[in-house]
Amino acid sequence: MADVDRAAPVDVMDRLLWRDAKYTLDRHSAPDDDGMCVWCGRLWPCAARRLAERAEAVAFGAVPSDAWSAGIDRLDVPEQRVDSVWRASVPFD
Questions:
Q1: For 39-80, how does the pLDDT look when each residue is reduced to its tens digit (9 = 90+)?
Q2: Is there a smaller number of Cβ atoms within 10 Å at the N or the C end of the chain?
């Protein structure tokens, strides 16, 4: 944890998220001559790169954290929870 604290810029709000985003951004850093990611070989910018860019923005507080988890929030309603639907379809012996 101390390494993360020393390496992160002062204005980072979530140091662990920033570290993980930086690690991914460093790997998925550029397209090759064919327009594919040099790390994963997918069309540039790859999904990992785009997700890491969003994570970095959240780590700096540029995107509200509720927007980051907006896709998960709808699962908090019991009727829409995936595991509730799955459990309802499993017969009890």
A1: 999 999 999 999 999 999 999 987 765 555 555 444 444 444
A2: C
Q: Which residue has the tokens 């999904």?
A: 47
Residue 31 identity (one-letter amino acid): P
- Residues constituting the chain: 93
User: What pTM was estimated for this model as a whole?
Assistant: 0.63
The label of the residue with tokens 């951004």 reads 25
- Report the distance separating Cα 80 and Cα 52, nearest Å: 28
CA distance 14 to 20: 10
- Token pair 């140091």 in the structure block, residue: 15
For the record, the structure tokens of 4 come out as 């993360």
